[in-house]
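Notebook p. 47: complex prediction with heme C.
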Amino acid sequence: MRLWKKIALALAAVFVILQFFRPEKNLGSSSGHDIAQSFTVPPGIQTVLLRSCYDCHSNHTVYPWYAEIQPGGWFLAKHIRDGKRGLNFDEYTSYRLMKQYRRFKDITENVENDEMPLPSYLLIHRYAKLSATEKNDLIQWCAAMRDSMKTKFPVDSLERRPPR
Ligand code: HEC
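Predicted complex, structure tokens below:
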């Protein structure tokens, strides 16, 4: 057998073997601590979050076809793990107040700077790209949610005081 044929067969075998190692899927549900428990999420905002953020920032991912083929599923699993660790809309109200307040700022910054949704994700999930209006709506909403927190809680429970 020619060398290139052997190499091709070996690669094909590796690819087949890879398929047996499947990451666990993120198919849970909201925990009773989802963001809507404490915050008003208007339908328009909800739609955008579900479409563009929830695959990596919730307890439930809508899996694309490439997740069934390794290593596609592994890449996605890593994004979900890292994304959920920082921000999980389904666990939002279990965070300390400071973190809830802080995350509304983080969302604004990430959206303003086009850092979220992850650019690599947008290559395949083009529908998840935020329009200028959607970005603006999200930013306004985050500001409104921060303001609503400020009316309910003392400011030192939301922001660390600057060091003296
Ligand atoms: C493909 C998965 C994916 C999608 C979709 C996605 N994110 Fe993320 N997000 C991540 C990952 C991964 C991180 C962690 C990045 C890091 O640690 O460098 C992250 C981090 C963040 C953070 C920072 C959290 C922290 O720890 O400070 C915010 C805020 C955020 N994302 C908001 C959003 C918003 C808002 C959307 C939707 C408009 C979105 N993300 C869509 C994967 C995603």
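Notes: The first helix runs from residue 3 to 18. The chain has a mean pLDDT of 95.
Next step: compare against the earlier run before touching the bench.
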